[in-house]
Amino acid sequence: MKLFQPLTIRSMTLPNRLVVPAMVTRLSGEDGFVNNDIRDRYMRFAKGGAGLVVLEAMAVHGSRSGPLLRLSGDEFMAGLRDLCAGMHDIGPGRVVPQIIHFLKIARSGWRQKVEDLSIAEIHAIPHAYAAAAERSVRCGFDGVELHMAHAYTLSSFLSRLNRRRDDYGGTLERRLRLPVEVVVAVRAAVGDQYPIGVRFDGEECIKGGYTVAEAQLIAYRLVRAGVDYVSISAGGKFEDAVPRAGEPLYPYTGYSGDRCMPGKSWPDGANRYLPAGIKSFLRKQGVAAPVIATGKINTPELAEEILGAGDADLIGMARPLLADPDWPRKVQAGRFDKVIRCCYANVCKARDERFQTVACFLWPKGSKQAPDSEDIVPPQWDRQLAASTQQGRVSLKWSAATDNEGVYGYDIWRAVGGEKFERIDAIPVPVTTYHDTATIKGLAYRYFVQAYDLAGNRSERSFVVEARVES
Ligand SMILES: Cc1cc2nc3c(=O)[nH]c(=O)nc-3n(C[C@H](O)[C@H](O)[C@H](O)COP(=O)(O)O)c2cc1C
Questions:
Q1: pLDDT at residue 65 in the model
Q2: Partner of 265 at 20 to 30 A CA spacing, among 129, 180, 188, 313?
Q3: How many Å apart are CA 453 and CA 467, to the nearest integer?
């Protein structure tokens, strides 16, 4: 499989093409230091076998924030150095921190904009990034990723809604000025061989925002300035965030937030046209920098198809690897059937918004980490499944399965008309019912349910039931 072929980026060789993109955990305190929970989370990702683990966004400056890691001073290095060494020991992958600069926001709804920054404040930003990147080298990280996506400072400079009237706004070249200064300063701080990645939006997904047409040029300019890989995200902006009284704006509540973390209603691979457009432009310009695609990519078939089509060089999976950090090693062993599969309920996102520990909806209630089990005994059950239709929806009910370690959840599979079965959702125990509201009259729907345990062992399938919606 192409997914398990290595890839070299300057001094860093990734053993495979799977990336854990940065995902804030809210496990750190506001002090910004690595603690045991953070350590457990990332050791688990490393052990799962991803080729590259990007540690969650950590601040390059001292501004106050909610719970967030920091790389803004030498005092933060010891914990990060230990974590990095532990991850190198336990897994085959490489490790880079994502480093971020953000502007101020207040509970009143006020937020600082790029137009509010003085030239002196702007000039301090490349220095802060360079100092944090140099700490990244000293911590033993294999590279560093610069956060230029979503609602944060560098992304807001790149934005078409950057309204500065000086050399840092207006034309695309001027919007790129600060991001390019950051790249140049970071390169000077880390030397020629150290990999520098950038994460930025392939599309802002807001009214008046840039699209892939400008993202291609942004990627080209950043690579020419010294960047070694580009990781393509989407949206996640303040401009369309939904205000909530007494709460600071959360940039993932509007349409652009949906585009950043596409939920259940979005098709698989929803954003793949962004890395595809950027990569094809870069290659036509003779630029070989690897491109990371992310956004509802969740099966080996889809990942392989994206790599095979040349739409990306690396596959990012955030929520799927939160649901099951062992996805890489299970798939490499040919056991995708043992993967606990994300159902895109976006409970992780909702928890992030509330500054609560980011956990997966599918994990056992109250867990801070994904379960870790090597058990091989699958759940047992009588396979009974009943379907009824009422008020235009199909309701399923099944009898509970049993397992030596405990049943963990159920996958729901559906076939529409004569089509093949697709997994449409997952339900954690103890629930044994499911309501399908995405149904229309005139088609027959077939369903089966399958139980899984903590290790992802699947039970036999339930009997298949058929339902028709009448009104
Ligand atoms: C809880 C949570 C926290 C996130 N934190 C970050 C972050 O710190 N930096 C970043 O670039 N993206 C962040 N993201 C976005 C993800 O990296 C990823 O782009 C997004 O979830 C879509 O990928 P997926 O469909 O594989 O989950 C976060 C996503 C989630 C769900």
A1: 84
A2: 313
A3: 28
CA 331 to chain centre: 19
| CA–centroid distance, residue 252 to ligand 1 (Å) | 10
The pLDDT score that the predictor gives to residue 15 is: 98
Identify the segments of the chain with pLDDT beneath 50. none
105's CB contacts (< 8 A; 6+ apart) are 111, 112, 248, 249
Peptide bond into 21 cis (omega under 30): no
- Give me the pLDDT at residue 265, please: 94
Measuring from atom 4 of ligand 1, which residue has the nearest CA? 23
261 CA to centre of ligand 1 in angstroms:
7
The ranges of the chain annotated as CATH 3.20.20.70 are: 2-353
pLDDT tens-digit readout, 312-370: 999 999 999 999 999 999 999 999 999 999 999 999 999 998 889 999 999 999 999 99
Report in angstroms the alpha-carbon separations of 68 from 27, 44, 213.
Answer: 8, 19, 33
Q: Which atom of ligand 1 is nearest to the CA of 147?
A: 11
Q: What six digits make up the tokens of 354?
A: 């509330």
Query: Residue 247's pLDDT is what?
Result: 87
Task: Find the largest Cα–Cα distance for the chain.
Answer: 71
Residues of the chain with CATH 2.60.40.10: 385-468
Q: Tell me the CATH number of domain 2-353, given options 3.30.2010.10, 3.10.450.50, 3.20.20.70, 3.40.50.720.
A: 3.20.20.70
Q: Global pTM?
A: 0.97
Nearest CA residue ID for atom 20, ligand 1: 261
Which residues line the pocket of ligand 1, CB cutoff 6 A?
21-24, 56-57, 98, 147, 149, 199, 233, 260-261, 294-296, 316-320, 348-349, 352, 358
Q: Which CATH architecture has domain 385-468?
A: Sandwich (2.60)
**Rounded to the nearest whole angstrom, what is the distance from the C-alpha of residue 436 to the centroid of ligand 1?**
28
Give the residue, out of 65, 261, 271, 349, with the most ligand 1 atoms within 8 A of its beta carbon, to mutate for a pocket test. 261
